[in-house]
Every structure is written in C-alpha cells, then in structure tokens.
Amino acid sequence: MDSLTVEDPTYIGPYRLIARLGAGGMGLVYLGRDEVGRTVAVKVVQAEYAAHPEFRKRFAREVAAARRVGGSWTADVLDADTDAGVAVPWVATQYIAGPDLTTVVARDFGPLPEHSVRVLANRLALALQAVHAAGLIHRDLKPSNVLVTVDGPRVIDFGIARAMDSLSGDSLHTRTGMLIGSPGFMSPEQVRGLPLTPASDVFCLGAVLVYAATGRLLFGATDTGLNAHLFRIAEEDPDLTGVPDSLLPLVRACLAKDPAQRPTPAQIAEHTAGDGGGVWLPGEVLAQLGRHAAQLLDYVPAARPEAPAEVRAAAAPAYIPTARDRGTPAPSPYRRWNLAVIALAQLAVLLGAGDTRSFLVGRVTPEFITCFAVPFGALLLLGGHIVDRVGGKRTLVTGLAGLAMAATLSGTTGALASELPLLLARLLQGASGALVTAAALALVSTGFPEPKERIRAFGIYATVSLAGPVLGLLMAQWMNWGSLLVIVTPLALIALAGTRVLPYDRPDRPDTRFDLPGVLLGALGTGGLVYGSLRVSGNWSASPAENWGDPLVVAPLSGGVVLFLAFLWWQSSASAPLLPAYVLKNRTWLGGFLALLLAGTGVPALAKLPMAVFNPFAHETKFTMLAVVAGLVIGSTQVSPRLLRRGVTPRVLVVTGLAITMLGLTMAIFQVTSGNAYPTLLPFMILAGLGMGLAFMPVFATATASAFPQHTGAASAAVIAAQLVGAGIGTALANSLPSMPWWAVACLLVAALTAHLTMPSEAPAARRG
What we know:
4 domains, two-stranded antiparallel ribbon, six-stranded antiparallel beta sheet
C-alpha cells in the first residue's frame, strides 16, 4: 500500500480513502473504509476513458452483472456509481486481506507444490463458473488478479475490462494501442483480436497454473519484444517443463489453441474436486499471510501532504466525490407473483394448443391440426430473438395480448359454418403463443437468481410445460367448442394484467443487427419438421407406409432437416447470430437440446397407451392421463427440487428420471399386452409421470443457464423448439404405428445416454446476470 497523494480525493462516495493499492490500465485502486469500518477496494476509472459515452454505458452494464456474481471464490462487488452524470465512475469490491499470486510466487515463496496448484485450479474454475453464469468474461485472469488467502484464492477485477471493447475504430482503444489482457496471460484469440468466449478465460487459467507450478511465464519472458511474445502465444506450443505429471493433461487441455477443445470450468472443477481438504498452502506461505493480515489491522494512514494554496486554487480535482449509487435494484418483492404470471401465461398457450378437436368434431383435417403448431414452432426462434432485443416483459405482453385476441376469435368462430375465420384465429394463436413461450422460459431463467427460488421456478415451469398439453387434450374431450373462450381467454387476460408486477428487463443486445437469415432458416426448418410430423398424425385412416410416403410428409421433413442444418451453419459464421458459437458448442446446452428432443419423442406414448386399451373418450383414458399428470407434478415440484438442493447432480437426476419413465412405460406395456384391467395400469403411469418430472426440470434449468443473459431468449426458444419437434415426431409415430410403443422406450434410453454424456455433474449455477 502507498500513501495518498495531493491529487487523491478524501472520499469516493461513502468511502473514506486511506491508501493507494495500485494503478491499473483503467484507473487507480484505493483502500477505503465506510462509516461502519468495513474495508473495501475502490477502483476509479481514468477520466479519459470515462469521457466516452459508449464506454460508460458498457461499464455500467458490466458492473451491474458483476454485482450478481457473488461466487465463493471471487471478491464480491459491493457498491458502484456508474451514472452518466457522474464525473468519474467507480466500483467498490470486497477487500481481500491477502497478497496476490505474483507476490507469493515471485517474491515470498516460489512455485507452489502440486497439491496447492490442484486446489488453485479447482477454486479458480469455480470462480470462473460464477463469473460466466453472470454473463461475463474475465478477460484478464492473471496472477496479480488472484489473491491468496488462508482458505483459498480469490479472483478479482472480473467483468470490468470488457467495457473497453466498446472503444473501437477511431477511439481511445486504437489511439492508445491498448490490449485487453496481460501479454503473459492472454489467449490466442485475444492476441488475434477475435471475438472472445468463456473458453478464453480457460486458456488464461492454464497459464496461471503453469506460473503457479513453475514460477515462469507460459511463453517465456516478454523482454524479447511484445510482438514476438504475442506471436508465440498465437502460434507456438507452450513449454510445460516443470508442471507436475498429474496436472499435465489438464493444463495441456486448457491451453489448446482451438477454444472448442478446451474443457469448461465445470469440467475442470469436477476433475480437481476433492483436492481441497485440509491446509492448501505450505506453512511458510500461511505464516506470511498472517503477517500480512496483522499489517492491515495495524495500518495507520499517513498524513496527506497539502499542496500550496495557489496550487489548490488553480488545480481541478482529479476525481470528484460522488453520492452513493443505489446499484442493482433489490430483489423484487413480487417474485412469487411474477412466477404465477409466467406460469399462467404458459398454461394459457398450452391449454389452447390442445383444444382444436372440440371445435371440429366431424370435420377434423390435417390443416386444422397443424394450423396452431406450425406457426408456434416456426416463430419460436423469432420470439427468442425478439426477447434478446427488446426484453422478455415486452415480448410477453405482446404475446399475451395476441393470445387473448386469438382465443376469443377461436371461441366465437368455432360454431360458424365457415372454417376460414377459425383457421386464421388459430394461426394468430400459434404465433402469439410462440412469443409467450420464448419470453416465459427466458424470464424464468433470468428472473430468479437465488438458487432455491430458481429451482422452485423451474420446477413449476416444467410442470406447466409437460402437464399443459395433456390437460388441453382432456379439456378438448370434456368441454364444448366454447372452452377456449371460457378458459384460455380469462387466463391470458389475467396474466396480461399481472405483467404489471414483472420487473422491466432492459435487453443486453438492443443495438445488434437483426439476424434475418437466421430467423428465416430457423423458422422454415422448425416449421417443416413440425408440419411433416403432424401431417402424419392427422391422417389416421392411412397405413404407415402411405403416411410416411406421402409427399406432403417427406418434403417438409427432409426439407426441415436440411434447413435446420443450414441454420446451424449460419449461426456459426454470422456476425450477430441468434445463437452464438459458444452456445452451440456448450456441452450442457447441447445435451439439454438433444435430451429434450429425444425424450420429447418418447413422451407421447404415455398418452397413446391408454387410448390403445380404452375408448379415447372413455373415463378410464382420462383418469389414466390424469395419473401421468399427478406423477409429473410430484416429480418436478417436490422430488427434483429437493434432490437438487441436497446436492444431487443434474446428470444423476435426468438419467434416473428417464430410467424411471422407461420402467413405468415398460411395465404399463406389459400390463396392456397381458390383458390386465384399468386399475393395474394406474401405478405404472404415475411412475412414468414421476420420472418425467424428475428429469425435465433439471434439463430446463441447466440448458438455459448455459447461455449469457443477452442470449437467453434465443437459447430458451431453441430448447423449446427441440421439445416441440420431438413431441411432433413422437405423436406421428404413436398415431401411425399400430404396435405397442416400444420405440418410445428406445428413445428414452438414447435420451438417458445422451444426458449421461453431456449433462453437468454439479448443481446448476444460479443465474445472476
């Protein structure tokens, strides 16, 4: 610590400054204390950076996200003032009473032993998980940004340097030649100026581990010249001499030139789990930490030198003390109401989706069966893109207004002789439902950052998502053509009125270009798959060969596959895609996508099975389907959340849930083929529903948590689209194949294997961004 100078202010916000901690590329860092004696580190941005409006706006967003990180191995952001009217922005973080890793390795002790490096890898990986879950990339992970304490390391300075990315072109970034990152600890993509993903931080983590284990920079000293050093980072293999053999595979994987080949922080944490028991540092280092803490307690600020009066009168202050920023708003007191509104909105969509049959008894056609599902599926990705551009609340309000209007038109035109008004109403209902569904899942993902509330929210969402279509089908059998007007319209209107309590979610990507090619390819691909599969479902009188050989089935299905592959290709190369490359390459998101697609294919068999035994309109069929609903409600709202809170991993929950569903379905098929009566079928259908609830809830939670907040809408919409396409294919198979649904058991088995290979082995991190 250094004494304050004449130019330094006495206060920054509510914090009395007592020393300088250091200077960085963006400003000065002070040691401060508040009125109750809490010690903080206050970083003040340099005035030349703060003069750029785009920098200030980006800085405010990064600080807001960083305040929500709150990981166990990071320094919490406590306070900030980023208002555009403030002369110089500042941010206050928890002060960690410990030296940085550079001081420990280069001056006080030397390279750390193997055990200490393994613990360091585990804790830094957990810290990066928290940072990435908040929608941030650290971009400057280096030994001087890792503070060493008795109980473990702490990562500091996350999320602030990213604001410099806004200074492009003829800007401060160019004029100063400033690099975001430190030359000895930069990733190849940073050196090349490519867009960064969380994998960049993993490379930097590997470089930090090499430094901790060997005491030297990954690519040697920088005294040979900056350009030569950067070339070695981009093109040459790292020198891993001295890294312990047990750590070599992990470090080498982190330092892969291709970001896609690097492990995720979750995988690193899993690989190094169990290494943190007991004392993690050598005794000499612990003794030095004790002396450092004692020095802080005994520190007395030096008297500040006073400049001559004429200098004080002429000089403008370097920093203007500011009022305390109110920071990120406190958690909404209406969170339970918010969840109820979202659940009602989603339920209104799904109940209406299954109500076509009640209007068209005696005149059911494939066109009427698909007139809701096709626009619903085709516009899901567009709905997600709109969420990312204008916000979830606005999208939900727009969708609910359209849904209420469409449901009313459907109810009032259902008895008319002409089918055209009903067709148009159902098209509008499907389009509005896509907006509501994309916004609902995105709002659940971003609106409940506290882990316990997040788990509860996803449990309720999974219940509505799975039970809604079944309840809609039952309503279609129990109620007349006015059921939409009686049920769906009031639900939509109540949810619309309740959106007033939803917090306004300012979008993180309002200025990005609209991805028109991506929207078109995704819409046509998903719409083709949905239309082709449901065309099979509507042609009940044809044989399976006639069904699947129909040109109106073959063309949409094959074209949908081609267009969806083209969509994925475009997303990997577009400059402003709906789904950026890091989402598409994320194992957790991809695993959730595939699991929902495969499991969704097997789920319709649970509705098909009782219809194969009883009359579709018989009470036995209805009560059997209600048994499935009861099981999934228990699984998704009671069993799965409790197990997650007790530390059971998503992978275990999903695989176990799908296995239970397979067991229940298999036993139910045996009951049917053995000619057993209705009561013997109920327990196994309840068991199958319980397994569904157990599995689907963590899939939704972990898949959507894999995307940054600015991409949550598109990622959520794609996950729902996978579930919809799977359900469409499963419905087609169930309606066209006369045999028992053993194919559904096979689909669930493949889904379980996929989940085992791709789902994370730790509890889903709460979203804080």
